[in-house]
Amino acid sequence: MLDAALLDDLAGRVGDRWVATDPADTANHAHDWWPRLLMRRRAGEDLPVPDAVVSPGSRDELVDVVRWCDAHDVAIVPFGAGTGVCGGAAPVAGAITVDLKRLNAIGGLDEVSGTIVVEPGVIAQTLEDHLRHRGWTLGHFPSSIHCSTVGGFLAIRSAGQASSFYGKLEDMVVGLDVVLADGSLFSTRPVPRSAAGPDLTRLFLGGEGTTGLIVGATLRIWPAPAVAVDRGFLVPDVRTGLDAIRAVLRTGLRPTIVRLYDETDTAMVFGGQGLEVPEGCLVIIGCEGDEDVAEFTAGVVRRILSEHGAEDLGPEPGEHWRAHRHNMSYRFAEYMKPGGTFGDALMLDTMEVAGTWAVLPGLYDDVKAALAEHTDLVLAHFSHVYPEGGSIYFTLGAINEGNEARALARYDAAWEAGQRAALAAGGTTSHHHGIGLLRAPYLREELGEVGFDLLRRVKDALDPKGLLNPGKLGLGGRGGRDG
Amino acid sequence: MADAPGTLPMIPDDVAAAALHGSFCPKMCTFACPVTEATGRDDAVPWSFHRTVSDLAQGRTTADAHAASHLEACTGCLACRVPCVFDQDVPAQVRAGRATVRDAGSPVAGTEDAVAAVADGRSPYGVDLPAGLDADATTGFDVVVVAGCRDDARDLDALRRILASAGRRTALVVPEGCCGGTLADLGAGPEATAAAARLGELLPPAPVVVATDPHCLPALRSTAGDGTRVLDTATALVQLVDEDALRFVSERTRVAFHDPCLLARGEDVTTPPRRLLAATGAVLVEPEGHGASTVCSGAGMALELVAPTDAAATADHRARQLGATGAPVVTACAGARRRLADAGLDVTDLATFLADRLVPEPPA
Predict the structure, then answer these.
(1) B24 in contact with A at a CB cutoff of 8 Å?
(2) What is the pLDDT of residues A461-480, one digit of tens each?
(3) Of the ranges A87-101, B102-116, B118-132, which one carries the lowest mean pLDDT score?
(4) Measured between alpha carbons, how far is B99 from B101 in angstroms, rounded to an integer?
(5) Chain B residues with CB inside 8 Å of A145's CB?
(6) Which of B20, B31, B53 is best to mutate for the A interface (most A CBs within 10 A)?
(7) Are A360 and A276 within one domain?
(8) Which residues constitute the domain of residue A385?
(9) SS3 for B141-159, per residue?
(10) B143-242 — its CATH code?
């Protein structure tokens, strides 16, 4: 436990009301949205709470807090909205959790350059609403856009549903401000690109707060699209769908939305709407922009899909998807709560992996088979495509008839099997959810011994006392619970 | 009522079930909450209310001052309800939670002062209630105007002038402190019921009752007799425009309309005030967040009594959005008008705006 006199000193820096120490006041920060922690809470376990939650109200206050932690050897767990799914914001004994939601200013909109300055606590949908009111878009639409912060997205290198056109979050970063472990402030020059040495922003994007605390960013924005042309297709199987999507990308055109559902997921999509379930796999392509650009891209997509034997289902499947694209996240509680749709102790999670086009079919087969060994249902869709490959988003579920211990055991077994299979098939263990605690056991194999040692040396250089988000990424640190 | 060990009796089963459900939702409506946006308080996120109320219902947390402090930062604006596919009623859960902690001896801040004020016939907000505007007659009214506990005399007089110009006989009723809505928001259920009953005794018979403050609509609906239509100001007045009973001097004035939350989301009333403004020739400038997406001024759920600093921050946030229009602001909620005026905004009540533009009566 942290010393009370120390915490009084801290309260003097940010104000009493912004330092919470009573367990009743820190319970909200006992978990993020890692399903394993939710399952433990559902089982009736009182999850460990942070020793203290501190909510600085300005960048200067945050710098002061970090310097104070450095001076007193107190570790820091950064916390945005607490909706990460890998335990990256889970509390650590002896550490303070630093809630960044008060740092939520939306700053200068540079309409000449197409950039905007934001603080890390801005909720992504709030930023998007702000931009849309002014005729712009960030183009970042993860399913958690309603509940997650920009800082969280930067920390894990998030990807949104329209990433095939707008890019991933790291592609949108023009400038970055970071508080380092000793409290010094590092800011990159906000320029479109620079060859002035290594790109230092990459030390922090995806660092999950282990290398520094992101306190601001200058982000690339786009004019809001005039139209969206969405369409659905039906292809005979996954491999045909992948071939067709790859052919579209090789034209040089970039649809905004590209999604291919495997047979099981296709059945869920159609069945969930009370529609007849067709044979084959659903493809949804969305094209955005000025009307002529969107229509032209959509025309090329239709031609190529047709050449691959796809049945054109018209605009309805795509429009339905767009209208309901956040529903699965909203419905999460319906399944996961005690006494949910599938009874008590449901195990439910998602696992996103990625690989090149060459390995993608095998990656799909192997990971799906590995997950199926330990679950009752595995759905998969392909999205976030690149000229050289794409990601696979698995949804895994298991009914456990009230047996929470069995649910946890199956959860752990499924993740172990799925992650090992992804690595063995030549893929990456995470496309856009990050590492946190969940994937820490696999990061060494992912990066290789030399790579992981390099990461550790970077960590040691930036955070020699091990005070920043200890335990996450499997990097240890003061008070950390390794992996 | 839930009957699990440790369960407190103030949280109905259906509210407890909804809160439990919400406590497993991944905080999806975070973006919608104006208090979260304005203050950065983690316990303003609607999910936090779900968790707190659910834990209270299950006896997993104590109904003490800590729990009470986590039931503060809601303004009851229903913004979180719009995106929710389960139609979660967060304010109802907060009310139940506040009732629970009050019953356990730890009311949310401001509750007992408000209860005492109403018991003395004063506004729970400490605002001087208007007086001396009552009608001469006691029966035969077309419309009864019921003042809210944050209304001021000027706006009420404006509404009565408009109704009079349309040939409507009106009575003004000023509740003895509160219609009960604010007390219910604070978790003071018995006192709220009593206040509503007292108001019911004051209401003279009339086919239409107009609530000048949208926060009073639920209480009035439960109080007014069968056959009485309870309307908000804009809905009542736009009907008179449709009947060609109101005439305004046309003036092309730029105005921004701040949609009161309970009108726009609770009552689905967004068009009538715009039609009224258009009838005066006003040119509407829509602010960021309007219609059903309006952003709260912090006037609901007695937030200004429970957490004044957070209420002020919420008002400041909304005032910045409205101020960015560069136009004077009109609204149709006394609470919102006060909050926004306190935040430095040039804001006028809809009735006063309209009354100032009535075609003058010809000299007798």
Answers:
(1) yes
(2) 999 999 999 999 999 876 54
(3) B118-132
(4) 6
(5) 31
(6) B31
(7) no
(8) 327-424
(9) CCEEEECCCCCCHHHHHHH
(10) 3.40.50
Under 8 Å CB-to-CB from A171, ≥6 apart: which residues? A220
Q: B108 vs chain A: nearest CA distance in angstroms? A: 15
Interface test with B, best of A118, A146, A148, A349 (most B CBs within 10 A): A146
Same fold, B143-242 and B254-355: yes
Residue A13: what pLDDT?
94
The answer to whether residue B66 neighbours chain A at the CB level (below 8 Å) is: yes
The arithmetic mean of pLDDT across residues A146-167, rounded, is: 96
Read off the CATH number of the domain in which A176 is found. Answer: 3.30.465.10
CB B340 within 8 A of CB B319: yes
Fold for B254-355, please state it.
Answer: Rossmann fold (3.40.50)
Tell me the CA distances in angstroms from B291 to A137, A424, B163, B256, B296, one per residue in order. 21, 53, 26, 12, 11
Q: Could you tell me if A130 lies within 8 Å of chain B, comparing CB atoms? A: yes
In this complex, the residue of A57, A104, A333 whose CB is nearest that of residue B37 is A104
Q: Is residue A359 part of a domain?
A: yes
Between A223-237, A333-347, B93-107, B133-147, the lowest mean confidence (pLDDT) is in: B133-147
The dihedral built from the CA positions of residue A82, A86, A92 and A96, taken in this order, carries a sign that is negative
In a shared domain, residues A265 and A188: no
DSSP labels for A157-175? T---TTHHHH--HHHHEEE
Ramachandran category for residue A114: left, alpha or beta (phi over 0 → left; psi -120 to 50 → alpha): left
- Of A71, A100, A129, the residue at which a domain comes to its end is A100
d(CA A410, CA A348): 10
As a whole-number percent, the residues of chain A with pLDDT over 70 amount to 99
Contacts of A275 (CB under 8 A, 6+ apart): none
Q: Higher pLDDT residue, B148 or A477?
A: B148
Average pLDDT of the residues in A341-361: 97
Residue bearing tokens 């009565």 = B160
- Is A307 within the bounds of a domain? yes
Nearest CA-CA partner of A206 in A433, A33, A46: A433
Cβ separation of A53 and B42 shorter than 8 Å? yes
Contact list, B288 vs chain A (CB under 8 Å)? 129-130, 133
Q: Are residues A112 and A219 in the same domain?
A: yes
Nearest to A28 among B32, B42, B289 (CB): B42
Which of A42, A74, A100 is the C-terminal boundary of a domain?
Answer: A100
Strands, E assignment, A103-238: 106-110, 115-118, 136-137, 173-179, 185-187, 213-220, 222-223, 227-235
- Residue of chain A whose Cα is closest to the Cα of B63: A24
Name chain B contacts of A27, Cβ cutoff 8 Å: 51, 55, 61
pLDDT of B135 reads 54
Domain ranges of chain B: 13-103, 143-242, 254-355
**How many domains does the structure of chain A reveal?**
4
If you write DSSP's letter for every residue of A377-406 in order, what string do you get?
A: EEEEEEEEEETTEEEEEEEEEE--TT-HHH
Cα–Cα dist A246/A144, whole Å = 27
Is residue A121 within 8 angstroms of chain B, CB to CB?
yes
Q: Which residue has the tokens 């997650």?
A: A148
Cα distances from B100 to residues A25, B10, B14, B55, in angstroms, run: 18, 5, 15, 12
Is position A134 within any domain? yes
**Which of B31, B43, B61 lies nearest to residue A146, judging by beta carbons?**
B31
Mutate to test the interface with B, among A17, A41, A153, A330 (most CBs of B within 10 A): A330
* Contact status of A59 with chain B (Cβ, < 8 Å): no
CB contact under 8 A, A330 and B23: no
Task: Out of B24, B45, B69, name the one closest to residue A333 (CB).
Answer: B24
Interface check for B23 against chain A (CB to CB < 8 A): the answer is yes
